[in-house]
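retry 2 of 3: previous attempt timed out while embedding thiamine diphosphate. Reduced batch size to 1 and resubmitted. Inputs unchanged:
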Amino acid sequence: MLRSEEKKLREIALQLRYDLLEMIGVGVAGHLGGSSSLAETLAVLYFHQMNFSADRLDDPHRDRLVLSKGHAALIQYAALCEKGCFPREELKRVKTLNGLLQGHPDLSIPGIEAVTGSLGQGLSISLGMALSLRLDKSPARVYAIMGDGEQSEGQLWEAAMAAANFKVDNLTAFIDWNKVQATGPTATIFNIPDLDKKWSAFGWNVIGVNGHDIGQIFGALEEAESVKGKPSVIILDTIKGKSFSFAEGNAAYHNGIFTEEVYQQARKELDAIKEGM
Ligand SMILES: Cc1ncc(C[n+]2csc(CCOP(=O)(O)OP(=O)(O)O)c2C)c(N)n1
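retry 2 succeeded.
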């Protein structure tokens, strides 16, 4: 990947984080932590990797992204907004009764491919999409993004076995390994060690990357596309709440509320990153 392209994607990831602040605002709960940990991944997927365009949302050969950890919808809304899928004003109306953008992804939102939020289901949905695209001989690929806490859901392991059994190589899964779930560390709440070995034993090609390194994410996607006869899973080593010092690794900001003071601090921290770019 060219350095200029990498820089552009880093700037987009930063913009997505600014958009998170715009959506969450002051005094209302919002899923900052698990959204921010995905900013680089969504920047690479939507702005580099995927065949996806706001003016071709019904293109049968578009690539699909299913956010299985649907509570992190805000980061997907940010990316879809920056892609031009809906007007910017919608960001301010997020999670309001008459707003377009609801608390979890919904098919009424342009660019959303699946209703998610009940954890564990997105991989099964993605597998169905990938199988049907293969039947249609479509070049399209499907990307499914799961959480590490989500790995305790049984249904996703059924989908994992089925995808390997059917040699579904147009499907790439991600695990946002940010090590914290809703109320504390994933290792304390429901420990699932050796994720790489587990997915490998289930027949998947496993790739581990720093989930905040644009170049590494890009390299992993290239590898995933080149591996034939089995699906790939990319384990993203990430920090929950990345780029916000008060939220990094802190379960309180899984779905926390900003005071005016914390909101201003968050903006300042992003401004400092911007200045350093
Ligand atoms: C089936 C189901 N059970 C419980 C929840 C409530 N819930 C929402 S987010 C969350 C924690 C998810 O943790 P993780 O997958 O690690 O997400 P991340 O830390 O990346 O936000 C839980 C338990 C849910 N959405 N669905």
